[in-house]
Design goal:
Belongs to the peptidase C40 family. The chain has 279 residues and is mainly beta. It has helices at residues 164-169, 188-197, 207-213, 258-266, and strands at 11-12, 15-17, 28-30, 33-37, 41-45, 54-59, 63-70, 73-78, 84-88, 92-93, 101-103, 107-111, 120-125, 129-130, 132-136, 139-142, 147-149, 153-155, 181-182, 185-186, 216-217, 227-230, 233-239, 242-247, 252-257, 275-277. 38% of the residues are buried.
């Protein structure tokens, strides 16, 4: 756990996670309360306000360690990628239910009954975590959710994808959303993270963290599946000369020639390529 990175350090307003005692200055230290996301998606915000900047999202079933509550929000840390921020308390539930399955498609509906003609109770994104309460025919009942079509789920510890690039390609044309991880809209680093999660692989949340996480390669060595980084941006190589990335230029997940992206981005404050990494 970093004791210097605000994004990853569970301390705010003079209150810190007890596990950080001796590592960070704080007026007091407190134990966290484990909670679980019970909404299909939950925004993690920079401040405890509904219109505050969204810095990340948590998908259904992910764990969130709550340090304190303020108004309608809980301040805490996402267990999966360790990101810190404010989440609406109504999007969280306790006790924590161990998941049996995960959503293995970009998005799927949960229904009120084990019937596709019944009311839709939510739209759930890739890598959401589901605790199964019941089974009926080709449906499974998710705790705190609804009835899912069973072939849209995979066991929590298996059935992983093997080609993360192919997973990422399923998000082609999805709108760009700052801080988004959901299948309806996500940002550049979330595209990488979500695709790798679907393969059972760990991945940090932000581009600088990803750049530090993966091993560096020379530009001439680049191939399908490698990552190319700019300041605050990342793209996936489909081949040595073509990239896939969620980006604010297209305001979508798009495919384009690497050379075109490099030239366009170089003309902005983002600047030139910082390097290439092997996943």
């Amino acid at each position: 756990m970093s004791a210097s990175d605000r994004r990853l350090t569970l301390v705010r307003d003079g209150i810190a996670d007890r596990r950080l005692e001796g590592l960070v200055p704080a007026e007091r230290f407190a134990d966290v309360t484990p909670m679980q996301v019970s909404a299909p998606i939950a925004s993690l915000r920079k401040a405890p306000e509904p219109d505050a900047e969204q810095e990340d999202q948590l998908v259904f079933g992910e764990l969130f360690d709550v340090l304190f509550e303020v108004g309608d929000f809980a301040f805490g840390q996402a267990r999966r990628d360790r990101y810190v921020g404010y989440v609406l308390s109504e999007a969280l539930s306790a006790p924590v239910l161990p998941p049996d399955c995960r959503i293995a498609v970009p998005r799927t509906y949960a229904f009120a009954e084990p019937d596709i003609k019944s009311a839709i109770v939510g739209l759930y994104s890739l890598n959401a975590l589901v605790s199964i309460e019941a089974r009926e025919g080709r449906f499974v009942k998710g705790a705190r959710a609804g009835w899912f079509v069973d072939h849209h789920l995979a066991p929590i510890g298996g059935g992983f994808e093997t080609d993360y690039v192919a997973v990422a390609e399923r998000f082609l044309h999805a709108p760009y959303q700052w801080g988004g991880r959901e299948s309806l809209g996500l940002d550049c680093s979330a595209l990488v993270q979500q695709a790798l999660y679907a393969c059972g692989r760990a991945c940090p949340r932000d581009t600088d963290l990803q750049r530090d996480f993966f091993p560096e390669i020379a530009e001439a060595e680049r191939r399908r599946g490698d990552l190319v980084f700019w300041k605050g941006h990342v793209a996936i190589l489909l081949d040595p000369d073509t990239i896939l990335h969620a980006n604010a230029h297209h305001m979508a997940t798009a495919i384009e020639p690497l050379a075109e992206a490099v030239a366009r981005i170089a003309a902005t404050p983002t600047g030139g390529v910082l390097g290439y990494r092997r996943v």
